[in-house]
Write a structure and sequence with these properties.
Helices cover about 35% and strands about 25% of the residues. The protein is α/β, with parallel strands linked by helices. It has one domain: TIM Barrel (Alpha-Beta Barrel), CATH 3.20.20.70. A hairpin with a 4-residue loop joins strand 8 and strand 9.
Amino acid sequence: MRPRLLPILLLSDGGLVKTVKFQSPRYVGDPINAVRIFNEKEVDEIAFLDIDAHRTGQGPNFALLADIATEAFMPFGYGGGVRTVEQAQRLFGLGVEKVILNSVLADDPDLVTRVANSAGSQSVVASIDCRRSWLGKYSVHVGGGKRSLGRDPAEYVREMERRGAGEIVINSVDRDGTMTGYDIELVGEVASAVSIPVVAAGGAGSLSDVQAAIKAGASAAAAGSLFVFHGRHRAVLINYPNPDELDAIFR
């Protein structure tokens, strides 16, 4: 079975946006329309991250997610504003397959355990955003990449695995939206630190970048700009590799 390749789509105020280094969100379309196109392209899996939900404290937009679940013919995950097991259970009830936890883990890391105990580890994803200092040292950040926890990513993901996470998404804030390639060193460090699947995110600009992330140890690769933009002028065009292209890069 070949590695998974999944679009990660950012939600803001009910629409889809794309950021660069977690800044300057640009509107790129309607999530329902995007899901319908990705259905036709038979994507492996899809994830939605609400970039406003944690900051505003409003929690998940359950009505929008119910609409997305009705349209989505592929497994999908959701992250953003989830603070309780009850919210996670409501998402699972809508058809969300995986709940993705990020900023909440800085203050309530036990939420991973509580959700895993409720729904199983396979349903809980710990999403880790990292920045690299000018000295070359990585640190975990939360709150949209603004708040440093002063934690080493490898040590942090080991804790998340111990607490019950079934999967890790490792995202480079510095590479987000740049399409300059994943931070392969970061991907390798995290992948070698845990035994659960690691999804590389942040920076994919080509299928060769995806191939490099898998070779570095990632079990799957995620991208945003790669699947919503086309050409050097970054025109909005929902796209996804065809089966032959996928077979070629994972051969």
